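To assess whether the prediction recovers the assembly geometry, we first specified each molecular entity separately, as shown.
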Amino acid sequence: MSSPSPSRFAWRTLFARSRTAVFVFGGDRKLRYVNPAWEQLTGKPLSAVRGAKMSAVRRSVSPMAPPPEVWAGQFARVRRAAPGHTDGPPWWDLTFVPLLGDGDHRVLAVVGTLAVVGPVPSLPRVKVPEALAAVRASHAEFYTFERINGPSAVSERLVSQVRAAAIGEMPVWLTGEPGTGKETVARVIHHNGPRRERAFVGLVCGGLQPYLIDGLLFGKGGAASGRVVGTLYLKNPHELSPATQEKILNWCDSPAGPRLICGSTISAAELVTAGKLARPFHTRFAAFDITLPPLRTRLDDLPALADRLGLPRLSADVLAMLRMHTWPGNLREFTAVVAKADGGPLTKELLPRVIRERHLIATNPPPATPPPTPKLDDILTAVEKRLIENALAEAGGNQGVAAERLGVFRQRLARRMAALGIAEGGE
Amino acid sequence: MKFPRVVVWAFDDWLANQLREAVTERKWVLQSVRTHAEWVKATGTHGPCVAVVQADPTGESEKQLAEVGELYRTNPDTDVVLVCDVKLNDEDRPPWTAAALDLGARLVLYPPLTQTVLEDAVVGLMERKVGVRERPVRSSPPSPQNPPLAGKEVEEEIDLAAGDFEAE
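The predicted structure of the complete assembly is given in tokenized form:
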């Protein structure tokens, strides 16, 4: 069977027989052709739309418009609300294929297809499958007290505080520098506490728009609508709007509400005083205050932390270098340093330059006190004295000969000898 | 300095395309991945990162959620936005949302999903990481119909709903 020659190929016939809605834009961005399936789908005849120009500037009223990248020669697939709807469903799924010219890569035409996507049906009740429950269980096992433990005294104190917090259900306020692991501590409290069967929800209060937080928690089918949240962790709650703070407080106050744990670099009392936080966060929801120690105060934990992150035993010289660093980024910074080893041994070369330089300076201290810079007068006096003494020595103590050698009068030599404390004999 | 990265793990390019303009405008890096190996590689490096994961609760979503959990445990500074592929009913949504949040997702979005909502979520989380705040604070979802931009020429348009096409 021979294929038809390109000039005779009846593409219109092919499109006309297709059940797929097809349209063609010319290079002048005007609609040139739509097939019967398109006409049936949209209810618009070809005669009514041929020659129409569609803009991408206002796509909401011109859903057929090819996006700009199509006119730049790229394939594109977009989903837009169907005409007459401000939002889908129904959606229009549009595919645009640009046809490029031979020479200058100009877009000669754009062929597209259209499919209508109806409302997404609400599915029958779906239980959280067992496989997902198993994933959650293994996730929870990760957050044991060992996760935050270490040989240093401050770590031991932290663990004992966290154990005490995990026993009860009282709200907790965690204060600590950035990167000290506040959320991890909150997780440990939750997964070892009485509400561990329910979910831990960590909310990033800064950055997310208030309506997103509202929707996530209090929207239709939101987390607050069922008794599914065990602990709500608020990261920097003072970044929430006052209205959202109020809603969350009311939710936590209700019998079905979650346990509240907040984490911040600043204490609740200071934030309330500054007017950034609703008063109940301090009076009712900061019953248990835990301050997380910065890494520089728990340097004895470094080998244990490295081991926990899957690193082979730290060598003595690398450990000495790590101990010299002040770790302003705390555990977050340490984790990033360890990650460079990629599971292998952490060598000196892999350490950041700031740590290597600090070690270099510490091991090669500069001289304690540099010698004082001599004064010019002192130097000239010393030189003059030496020259006179030499001249006297060469002259055998004869001041007249010495004065002649030095090119001065004898009286002047005598005055200088007296001033410089040179004895008559030249000694 | 490592550039802020937005990693999108989805079934197709639709999600990445929705974010492309917002990400490139801010000179961030957009990585669209399909496979587990690509995902692990893309999220394995440190630096400011927001990940968008598409999941189907009616399918084998536990695989994606397990990866979300794994990422949270190894690199808790990477924020994950989970995009649910299907609409769940009011009874199923809270437990599924809670499970996703429990495993470390920062936000769970359900259909219908608009470009602005997706941008608000991803850009907001990333701007917090890089310490800038450019987007206006919105207490209610934005209207899907944006007014034409002032000062820009609006070309001749047709409204397929109105039926007043201009024929050639």
